[in-house]
Structures are given as structure tokens and as C-alpha cells.
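Session log. Operator J.P. requested a structure for one protein chain; no other inputs attached. Running the standard single-chain path with C-alpha cell output.
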Amino acid sequence: MPRAADPPRAWQRMLSGRRLDLLNPSPLDIEVEDIAHGLARVARWNGQTKGDHAFSVAQHCVLVEELAVHLDTSLDRKARLAALLHDAPEYVVGDMISPFKAALGLDYKAFENRLLAAIHIRFGLPPQGAQKLELFIKKCDRLAAYLEATQLAGFAVSEAEKFFGKPKGLTGETAQRFFRLKPLATNDAAALYLKTFRRLAP
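Structure written below.
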């Protein structure tokens, strides 16, 4: 039991055995299996979605990567990997809904970005992505949010368009799969995330 004078614990033990310091995360303590396991157990929309299973952050990340490739077929492997990893810090901090993040302020975002930088370094990406790529991934993230909101989270189309913008670039036969979202069981979501990662990782 910690003594009263001891500083509060700021690390998280992972199933891989790694001990990740949340305040000063080391790339050496980051494993993709931990990320996939954690993200598959974090629910988007605070779990307020239709279906027998939650729509996990792991599945959301795969959706964002697939949307990125659909919108720009010239994306290289590193850009696609950055899209897949865009919400990776949530394997530790969870998926806070946007209104709550806004209420917490910039300190939370700085904490999240520090962890994302360590994740990027671990998997051979620059600590911070180019602004153009970051904006593009954000666009895909919002598009994914629109698709999830209207198919799974009970939003009317007009309401989703107000918050996430009108979807663009999702015409044609190849885009129809994005309108058939189905939440996966936890283990299936983790497996899908790992399969996508291994296709993109060096």
C-alpha cells in the first residue's frame, strides 16, 4: 500500500507486461497488441449505439483508414498508418466525447498529443504529422463520425450534417460498404485492427 507521502501512480500496466508512464510515455513501452486490445474495448459514442456490440474505437480507426484510402488512392503506407493510429492514445485514456474534451481544455489535448507522439515514434512515423495530412485525417475522422452517427447513434441526417458536415466523396459502388456499418464483437474488432496494422507496418 502506498505511503501518504508517495507521489500518485502515473503509469498503466499493460497485458503485454509493459508499464507505460502516462506523464512521460516511452515508445519502448508501447506494443500494438496492447493498443488493439484496449481500443477494441473502448466504445464510441459512450456506448450509445445500436447493435449487439459496441462500435469500438478499434473499428472506428479502421474505418478512418479505409475512408482515407477511398478519398485519396495515392496515399502511401505511412500516411495510411497515421490514419489508423489517429486515436491510438485512447487505448490508455478512453474515448471522451468531444463536449467533455472541450470542457477539460488544452491540457488534456497536450497530454493526448504527447502519447500520440510516442506511439508514432514507436512505429516509425514522425512525432507530429504534416499539417496537410493531419487536416486530411481529421476530415476522414469527421466523415466516419457522420456515418456512425446516422447509422448507429440515432442522429437524424440533418443533425449529423450540422455537427459533422455533409459527406462528400462517398458516391459510387465502392463507397456503398461505408453505409453498412455493423459493430463487431470485441475480439473481432481487435483482430481487424491488428490485421490492418500489420498490412501497413514496416
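Operator note: The chain has nine helices and two strands.
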